[in-house]
Structure formats: C-alpha cells, structure tokens
Amino acid sequence: MENFSSDEQTNKNVILLVIAISSFLAPFMTSSINISLPSIEKDFLIDAVKLNWISSAYVLSAAVFLVPAGKLADIYGRKKFFLIGNLIYTIATTLAAIATSANILILARIIQGVGSAFVFSTNIAIITSVFPFSERGRVLGINVSAVYIGLTIGPFLGGVLTGHLGWRSIFFFQIPFCLAILLLGKSKIALEWAEAKSEKFDFMGSILYILFLLFFLYGLSKVPTKNFIILIALSALLFIAFFKVESKSKSPIVTFGLFRNNMTFAFSCLAAFINYTSTFAVSFLLSLFLQYIKDLSPQQAGLILLAQPIIMAIFSPLAGKLSDKIEPRVIASLGMALISASLFALSRLGTNTGMVFIIFSLTILGFGFALFSSPNANAIMSSVDKKFYGLASAFLGTMRLTGQMVSMAVAIVFFTLIIGKVRISPEHYGNFISALKYLFLTFGTISFVGIFASMFRSKIR
C-alpha cells in the first residue's frame, strides 16, 4: 500500500481541486448558455439557426479535437497541454464576454471548444497519474461529481446572472476561476508526464480524424434531411481513408490495437457511448413534457429536473470509491441496469402521471448514472498503459459528446416521424406523448444492451 507524506498528500489534493474546478467550468458553461440564448437573440437580433450555433459550435469543436489533443499531451506533456488548454479557454471566454457580434461570439465558442478539448483530454489523465491505483476510483468520482455540479447549478445560476447582470456575466463569472486554475496549475502541478515522447505526432491522421468526426457529428445535426445521408456518407469515406493511413503509420493518432487487444478498454468505451446515447435527451424530453403537458413554468420544470444531477453529484464519489474495492464492471453494470429500468418506467408517461413518479424515476436514473460513470472511467484509465492516459481520457470525452449528439438525433427522428414538423400545440399532444413513449422504450432498450457491453469486459483486478 502506498504511503505519502502530509505535504505530498496536500499537494495531491490541491491538484485534485484544480482538476475539479476545470471539470466544473465547461459543463456549467454548456448548461447555463442555453438559459441566456433568448437574451443573446434580443441583443444581436439573429435567427434561430445562428442562435443554435452559439450552443452547438462548442460541442462540435470540443469533440473533434479531443483525440488529437490527447495524443499531443501524451507526446509533449500533459501538464503543458492542460495549462495551454486552460489558457485558450480563458482567452476565448474573455472574447465571448466582450463579443460585439454573433459571429465573434460563435468564433469564441469554437475556440472555447478547442481549449476544452485540451483540458478534458488531460485532466483525468493527470489525476490518474498523480493518485495511486488504490485511490483512483475515489478521485475520479470526485471529478465526475464536479461535472454534475456544473450541470446542476448552470441553469439556475445562469438564469440569475442573465436576469440581473445580462448574458455576458455568465462568461465574466468564469474568468476568475480560469485564472485560479492557471496560477495553481502552474505552481502546484510539479511533475510532467510524457510517456509517449519517443513518438511523432501524426498530422495527416489527425486531419483525417478531425474531418471524419466533423462530418459525422454535423451530419447528425441534419437528421432526417437528405444532407444527413450525404454528410454521413462522406464521414464514412473519410473514416476508411483515416483507417488506411493509421494502419501504415509508425505513430498513429489512434492505436487500433487498444480496441482489438484490450477488451476492457473497448467495451468500457462502448458502454460509455451507449450510456450517453440513452440518457442525454432525457432532460430535453422531460422539460418539454413538464411544460407542455403538465403546464409548469420553466423554473418549476427546472426544479423537478434537478433531482437527477443532484443524486449524480452526491453518489458519484461514493461509487468511485467503491470501485477501488469492488470490480468496476460489476458496479457500472448495476448502474446501467438501474438506468435501463428508469427509462422503461418513464415510457409510461401520460397526462395523468404524477410528479412523485417522475421525481422517483429521475432519482433512480441519477443513482444509476452515478454507479456507472466513475467506475466506468476507472475501468478505462486502469486498463491502459501510462503512455496512453491522454488518449484514453480523450476517448472517454469523445464517447460522451458523440453519444450526446446521437441521443438528440434519435429524438429528432422520432419527433419528425410521429409529430411532424409542427409546433407542439394541444391538438398534437397525443402524438407528442406517443413519441415520448417510443423514445423512452428505445432508450431503455439501448441501455439494456449496454448492461452486456459493461459486463463482458475483462477484470482490472
């Protein structure tokens, strides 16, 4: 068992605090910016398409740069790229706060995504490197909890800031935290990790990967139009070219052997993708249900929806700590089973469904998510060699963002097929509820399949 001096332990805890703050900021930004969109629309007088890009530009940018950023960090140093990422994020956040047009704001959001890619491809890798194997699940759980706290308070605090100080205050609010991360990160993260420094960065592979994922994710946003088919087909061709280039590269950006020869890593990534695919659209769907069918105000609906992330934030550290003692796949699989059960329960929603049932279902969903998330992250990071920590962390983030995009695409397809391109008005409430039922049944089934993806991976102990 590892022994550390009190100074070493204190320094490790400061590093964990720095990482946790960095993990809090991006989810807070993501969840709070949506509240401020109406204010931004009034300020810049922009159409719905451009308004949507203020939100989605960040997600696309972060997703496509995660894996290249993780590989760069493995080669040239994770501390270095963690700090570079936070510096980029700080500059972009400042630019967003003083943006004089919607185009500048969208550009700032794209740059924020690039900065976040460097942060999220290194933060988990750093705490995995700093803390011993026996503490890994606990600290990963704390980090996951920081993410959920950001998601939880984002809509509320974002609404308060926007209502009293304007939408720019959401960006100004983050700047002191960004500066604290840079100062503490520079002074307290004493070591550097670059276990893959003997390798060269694969620029051609990186370009093909970025283009493949960009076309794929952008294509998902065009579901179910003809452009969706064209963009997905182009992404498939780009992936084939990417695979061929990587197969011949001496230092590939993606080591496909990680998936072929490491079943724990492969199935853990698949489980993460399945988990986010089956759960991300839930808040969106229930928000519509509570406001349209139950006639709640946005604030009242938001309070109901808080049940899930609060439970996730409370239990994620405990689940992570438990995964230090019990095989992570067992805990994560139990979590996936609870998620599946809650989604099937939500498929019973109707006009007479009580609030207690909805809150109870969200509580079970949040508990299942807590049991799954940090143990699954523990399994991913514990299944790879140190030189792949950055890449593994990046893949975990990519599975999250890609799963989120797929989840929303599935919801859009069902809405288009069952409701059609009409406003959700009383005469269409019946079709709306039918769409919700089919969606939750579909998501529950996807999550049920995820139980087996989670169980069939190898043990890490």
Description:
The protein has 18 helices and no strands. About 50% of the residues are buried. It has about 450 residues and is an all-alpha fold. The protein is globular. The chain has 3 domains: about 1-200, Growth Hormone, Chain: A, CATH 1.20.1250.20; about 200-250; about 255-460, MFS general substrate transporter like domains (Growth Hormone, Chain: A). About 80% of the residues lie in helices and about 0% in strands. The longest helix has about 40 residues, at about 5-45. The model is unreliable at about 1-5 (pLDDT under 50).
Query: Structural class given helices, strands, pairing?
Result: mainly alpha
- Sheet with most strands: none
Outline type: globular
Query: According to CATH, what is the class of the largest domain?
Result: Mainly Alpha
- Give the CATH topology of the largest domain: Growth Hormone, Chain: A
**The named CATH superfamily of the largest domain:** MFS general substrate transporter like domains
Q: List how many beta strands DSSP finds.
A: 0
Helix content: over 70%
Number of domain units: 3
Mean pLDDT, rounded to whole units? Answer: 86
Strand content: under 5%
The CATH architecture of the largest domain: Up-down Bundle
What radius of gyration results from the CA coordinates? 21 Å
Order of helices and strands: HHHHHHHHHHHHHHHHHH
Sequence stretches where pLDDT stays below 50 over 5 or more residues: 1-6
Q: What is the assembly state of the chains in this entry?
A: single chain
| Tally of helical segments | 18
